[in-house]
């Protein structure tokens, strides 16, 4: 039930961005919707009609290369998206004087919409179907093929909407990717740190008592000095990062610290730290 709600929310947000910011300002997109928008700018045919038609053709060609669960979810997603595109097109917004602003808004809406759709384990088909066909038949990379297909659609847009609007499309796509990653990563982002210090026990003690967190201990050996050292691995909420680094530097100003962006964290005592400490 949660996945269905996510799909409905995601498709509505994406459709709203498409009809209110992309269509009035002649901005395109990648995948099926990108092709539908180019058809709309060329012929006036509603994306609400062309999107499911294109999807049916692609599905007929590539259905045997897709897992059944993905097919069912994608069919539902495309159906809901097409309905929202058709319904919201009737309240089409007026063009924005600043096309860059329209591209930014479209990117934000599209990225947020895709984030919810991907959270539900679904997609809007298109590039992913072609990528799976090419991967199965020719061994091409799924990610690389997706990128190439989207790039071809955007380049084709140069002949329909012109190079300037095609560039705004690229900007919208980039913003959309950033927003999608943010939605998928969650609002409560985390950081991972590797800390090497001869005072690691004191650092670990202060982290436990002052930050209500914990650390996992590894043992590593420096190649130059051939000395074995304790290496602390810590996962912490991003808003605690500066405070954590301050604590480490108070104990050992020369501590070696490496900070990593964490894409996803699950299991263990994530709410208070990492692992069993």
Automatic annotation (TrEMBL):
<feature type="transmembrane region" description="Helical">
    <location>
        <begin position="70"/>
        <end position="88"/>
    </location>
</feature>
<dbReference type="InterPro" id="IPR003740">
    <property type="entry name" value="YitT"/>
</dbReference>
<dbReference type="InterPro" id="IPR015867">
    <property type="entry name" value="N-reg_PII/ATP_PRibTrfase_C"/>
</dbReference>
<keyword id="KW-0472">Membrane</keyword>
<dbReference type="InterPro" id="IPR051461">
    <property type="entry name" value="UPF0750_membrane"/>
</dbReference>
<keyword id="KW-0812">Transmembrane</keyword>
<keyword id="KW-1133">Transmembrane helix</keyword>
<feature type="domain" description="DUF2179">
    <location>
        <begin position="214"/>
        <end position="267"/>
    </location>
</feature>
<protein>
    <submittedName>
        <fullName>Uncharacterized membrane-anchored protein YitT (DUF2179 family)</fullName>
    </submittedName>
</protein>
<dbReference type="Pfam" id="PF10035">
    <property type="entry name" value="DUF2179"/>
</dbReference>
<feature type="transmembrane region" description="Helical">
    <location>
        <begin position="100"/>
        <end position="118"/>
    </location>
</feature>
<feature type="transmembrane region" description="Helical">
    <location>
        <begin position="38"/>
        <end position="63"/>
    </location>
</feature>
<feature type="transmembrane region" description="Helical">
    <location>
        <begin position="165"/>
        <end position="184"/>
    </location>
</feature>
<dbReference type="Pfam" id="PF02588">
    <property type="entry name" value="YitT_membrane"/>
</dbReference>
<feature type="transmembrane region" description="Helical">
    <location>
        <begin position="138"/>
        <end position="159"/>
    </location>
</feature>
<dbReference type="InterPro" id="IPR019264">
    <property type="entry name" value="DUF2179"/>
</dbReference>
<keyword id="KW-1003">Cell membrane</keyword>
<dbReference type="GO" id="GO:0005886">
    <property type="term" value="C:plasma membrane"/>
</dbReference>
């Amino acid at each position: 039930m949660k996945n269905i709600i996510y799909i409905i929310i995601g498709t509505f947000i994406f459709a709203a961005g498409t009809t209110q910011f992309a269509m009035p300002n002649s901005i395109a997109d990648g995948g099926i919707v990108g092709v539908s928008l180019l058809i709309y700018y060329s012929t006036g045919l509603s994306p609400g009609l062309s999107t499911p038609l294109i999807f049916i053709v692609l599905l007929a060609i590539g259905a045997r290369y897709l897992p059944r669960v993905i097919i069912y979810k994608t069919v539902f997603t495309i159906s809901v998206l097409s309905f929202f595109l058709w319904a919201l097109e009737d309240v089409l917004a007026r063009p924005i004087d600043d096309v860059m602003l329209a591209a930014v808004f479209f990117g934000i809406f599209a990225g947020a919409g895709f984030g919810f759709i991907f959270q539900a384990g679904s997609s809007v088909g298109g590039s992913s179907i072609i990528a799976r066909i090419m991967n199965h038949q020719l061994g091409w990379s799924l990610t690389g093929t997706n990128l190439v297909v989207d790039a071809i659609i955007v380049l084709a847009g140069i002949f329909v909407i012109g190079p300037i609007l095609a560039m705004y499309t690229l900007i919208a796509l980039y913003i959309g990717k950033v927003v999608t990653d943010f939605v998928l990563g969650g609002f409560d982002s985390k950081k991972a740190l590797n800390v090497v210090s001869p005072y690691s026990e004191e650092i670990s003690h202060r982290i436990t008592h002052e930050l209500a967190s914990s650390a996992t201990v590894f043992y590593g050996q420096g190649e130059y000095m051939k000395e074995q050292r304790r290496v602390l691995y810590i996962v912490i909420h991003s808003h605690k990062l500066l405070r954590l680094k301050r604590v480490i530097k108070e104990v050992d100003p020369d501590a070696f610290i490496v900070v990593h962006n964490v894409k996803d964290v699950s299991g263990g005592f994530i709410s208070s730290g990492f692992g069993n400490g």
